[in-house]
Amino acid sequence: MTPFEPPEDLYGMPPEYQIFDDVDLGILLVSEDFTVIRANTAFRRLAGGEPIEVPGEAAGRIRAAAGDGIPEFECRLRAPDGRERRYRCSGRRVPSGVGWLLLFREMPGDYEAIVEYTGTATILIEGDGTISVANTEFERLSGYTLREIVGIKRLPEFIASEDERRRIMGYHTLRRRAPSAAPKNYSFTFIDRSSNLHAVEVTIGLIPGTARSVMSLLDVTERRRAEQALQESEERLNLALLAANDGLVDWDVSTGRIFYSPRNFTMLGYEPGAFALTIPRILALVHPEDRGRVEAALADMITGERDHCKMEFRARSASGEWFYVLDRLRVVKHDGSGMPLRIVGTHSDITERKQAEKELLVREMAMESSLSAIAIADLEGRLTYANQALLAMGGLTDPGQVLGRNISEFWVEPERVAEVLRTLAERGRCTGELVGRRADGAHFTAHVTVNVVSDGSGSPVCIMATVIDITEKRRMEEALRESEERYRTLAESAPDIIFLVSTKGDALYVNGAGGRLLGVEPESLRGKNLRDLFPPAVAERWLAKIRIVAERAGGILTEETLLPGDGGGTWLETRLIPMVGSDGIVRSLLGISRDVTGRKQAEEQLRFQALVLSQVEDAVTAFGTGGRVTYMNQAAERLYGVPLSEAIGRPGSEFFTCEWLHPDDNEAVKNALRASGTWHGVVLHRKRNGETIFVDETLSTLTGEDGKSTGTLCSLRDVTAPGLGYPQRQRVLVRNALLPPRCYRTEAGRARTPDQGYGDSVIARCRRPHRPRREDHLRQPCLSRRARVGAGGRGYRGAVLDDLGRP
Which of 54, 457, 661, 761 is the most buried (most CB within 10 A)? Predict the structure, then answer.
């Protein structure tokens, strides 16, 4: 044979035969005349080069072949090292009929046969570390073919780390020098063709009489992984139990021995091993209400009626408190008859969880019964929960009508809803008002608060919305605005001063009348204190009054105040009303002030006039339209012997009667009153004590602003005594008393009927006419004018003289 060099043209071999180069078996293609047509790569490796002729045994078999096949037979080929090797050979005629295809399979030697059937990866190692024999198991472990291993690979090439390589090759050298000194068993990390690492345990020994060692390698990678996984699992279990604060329970049913991990004791406040572990002792810790249920569950497990249980119960702690405990137990071992032998499980303290569940239940009940509408949706906006208030707000009754629908479907304004959702996405929270649509199509206004709910790590979990129907509130606010506007309009158009002041005297509101009084714009007064607006004496007086009203918190104070100024100043009559808050505290007061300057001046004038009339000698009496006394001065009281307090409001006929001196006087009086509104003459008065007197009387009709009669004014003088005169000074005194500072003439010529000036009882018995005296023209016009003039220049109404003479 010549040295092997792969031919460039594959000897003109047909393309379908080129696949033989990928086969590990030696293949030789020969013609009918025993000429070698083609040898594959594996055969050339066996022969050490390109074959020139067909091996003798093969040629003989071809000649003797009776058909298309050659049964397997043994033949020999010379190896590249010069030694002959045995092979198993078989053949078959090719389909084209142009020759024979021969297959060569190497036959194992004695060592090879032994190594092949050891059941583990086994190799023979020469003195220099070369692997001379390897079995199929080693082939699988290493990832190399036998031809790539045998005579080519050395043991160090399969040792992963340099340290292990030095250690094991040291053992190999030591074994040849002193076989008993080298270890027979050890392990190392094996590296295969794909650089995968395997944990292997090795058994090695020296073949007697040779320098060769035989090594068996057991791949324990999976076992090591399982052991490691088991160890890690046990560690994880211990860590999990420690992290979960769970206790481990191991109950040997056959012996009754129970194991409790320390946590089982400490979770109830006991020291580990504080008491003997027996079923009765454990049940004694269980709450009486739960004990029967727990005992029944354990009995079912012991008798095999159930193989696992999960139960919650209350257990008494060392301090006497009741803790909630969760037991999870499972039967893990049975005897031959199926009865439980071993039960294991965990003990968990769930007290906090039970409290949390209770709080959650309370919250759920609170949400369900809340007056506020509450909705929960997933992150896509689909509703997953709606309480009763939300259903009622939408006019619905069944949660199924809303669950699964998007929250945006229930609102009227899509643009506004989109804005809310954008804000929610950006900030995680949004508050605003939206217009919703009820099931019947009616609209309502709602205040909506939407939040993204996150878990402990900050990751969003769901969307929660709180909805409050503010339709009625908005309606009331609108009504309140309209009411406030109406009242503000009334306040601004009112002639009285209306203001709101704090308990410290700061102006909170002043209407236009108040601004006109002080000569400034009302808005400029807001925030100013009374000390900034009025003289110190006035301001301090009013601050004291404000404190009094605020402290009483229920009374109304009326006060009159004179503000200094031109023309004697301005009199204000003010009512202070405390504004009590819902907490019962007064923080502001409402004030209404009226300008009563004219009234005060009129009252002063009336007091002066009453003083004058009380000092004149003539009796002055006023009657209403019904003939009842409305005023009497002191002279009239003396004349008739009746005090004013007794006479007021009673008919004059109870105190005296009037008789005319001539029959035609009645008509003369009527004509005079129609013509001028006054009459003067002498009449006869009969007092209630029977005394008769002659009276010089002047009658004047009292009229109001509308020109209608309001009563009669009588000026009387007793002229019964002969020679009694009427001094000029008294006439002047009466006239000056009755004339106001700005007296003016009204319609003096309007006719008056007798019943307009005084009752028929007054003039019924007049007997003769009376001619007016010359001096009466001085008094009559004044009486007439005074009868028409009242406070502030206005005509008197009704019983004006009723107030004369009062303090």
Answer: 54
**What length does the chain have?**
807
- Residues 6+ away with beta carbon under 8 Å from 741: 605
Token code pair at residue 121:
């990866």
Residue 494's CB: how many other CB atoms inside 10 A? 14
Do residues 620 and 534 touch, judged by C-beta distance below 8 A? no
pLDDT tens-digit map of 356-387: 888 777 767 766 666 678 888 888 888 888 88
Q: Give the amino acid at 26.
A: G
What's the predicted TM-score (pTM) here? 0.33
DSSP helix/strand/coil, 622: strand
Contact in structure between 728 and 736 (CB atoms under 8 Å): no
Per-residue pLDDT tens over the stretch 254-277: 898 999 888 889 989 999 989 888
Closest alpha carbon to 399 in 372, 436, 373 = 373
Q: Strand pairing of 308-316 and 322-334? A: antiparallel
CA 752, CA 67: separation in Å to the nearest integer?
173
Q: Is the dihedral of CA 171, 173, 174, 178 positive or negative?
A: positive
Nearest to 6 by CA among 31, 41, 36: 41
Q: What is the C-alpha separation between 72 and 54, in angstroms, rounded?
A: 16
C-alpha distances (whole Å) from 191 to each of 199, 220, 435 are 9, 13, 74
Report how far residue 730's alpha carbon sits from residue 733's, in angstroms, rounded to the nearest whole number. Answer: 5
In angstroms, the CA 646 to CA 629 distance is: 10
pLDDT in tens, 206-237: 887 677 899 999 999 998 888 888 787 767 76
**Token pair 């929660």: residue:** 464
Task: Give the pairing of strands 197-206 and 185-191.
Answer: antiparallel
CA angle 618–764–645, rounded 5-degree value: 45
